[in-house]
Amino acid sequence: MRDLVDTTEMYLRTIYELEEEGITPLRARIAERLEQSGPTVSQTVARMERDGLLHVRSDRSLDLTQRGRELATSVMRKHRLAELLLVNILGMELDRVHDEACRWEHVMSEEVERRVVELLDHPSRSPFGNPIPALDELGMKQPKLDSGIRVIDLPDGEEVSGTIVQINEVLQVDADHFRELTKAGIGVNKHITVVNNNGEVTFTTETGATVELADELAHAIRVART
């Protein structure tokens, strides 16, 4: 995303994403995700540390403060509610939703959030299966959801049958691979067979279509065994 609306919020949400995906948050990872230069990211992270939003640990990983985590969680909640609104109400294609929601997340008020929640009958997941965090702050009960297991954490070489429960952000923004998966019939709530071959993951659908993904994208998909 080059047209960031709120840089601080986008950085906080990206750190949240990385944690959710099981990836250590580093400045280098933020630079990759947001397509920004190393010096730009370092300057922004330094400012955020001065503002009390995060700490840079001795191993260079980024650790959100309580204040930073509260803000990151709020931004992610708005982002995923925006995705639902764009898909379920406006009918936007899934491969275009993430970037648009990145704009909406910075301008959505809590009042609008509550109205979206009511309009969409109290959702708990985004269109990509990702949990909507901190719904209790909007007066909703926070449900316990099955987050499944990352496909790269499945036993090496074992053929596993399961249902896709989540597709994380890093794969959503890779439009070419996301469209390839969609065209093959691979998506949230779809039944698939998965084989993890040392980080190279092969997905097979019920119709026999196959797609291969390398570790850096495959880690974004979580499945529940069936």
TrEMBL record:
Q: Which UniProt keywords apply?
A: Cytoplasm, DNA-binding, Iron, Repressor, Transcription, Transcription regulation
Q: Which residues form the HTH dtxR-type domain?
A: 1-65
The places in or outside the cell where this protein is found are: Cytoplasm
- Do you know which InterPro entries this protein is assigned to? DtxR/IdeR_SH3, DtxR_MntR_Metal-Reg, Fe-transptr_FeoA-like, Fe_dep_repressor, Fe_dep_repressor_sf, FeoA_core_dom, HTH_DTXR, Iron_dep_repressor
Keyword check for Disulfide bond, yes or no. Answer: no
One Pfam family this chain carries? Fe_dep_repr_C
Cellular component terms per the entry's GO annotation = cytoplasm
Primary residence: cytoplasm
A molecular function (GO) held by this record is: transition metal ion binding
Sorted alphabetically, the Gene Ontology BP terms of this entry are: negative regulation of DNA-templated transcription
Which family, according to UniProt?
A: Belongs to the DtxR/MntR family.
Q: How does it assemble?
A: Homodimer.
Name by which UniProt lists this protein: Diphtheria toxin repressor
The taxonomic lineage of its organism, from the top, reads: Bacteria, Bacillati, Actinomycetota, Actinomycetes, Mycobacteriales
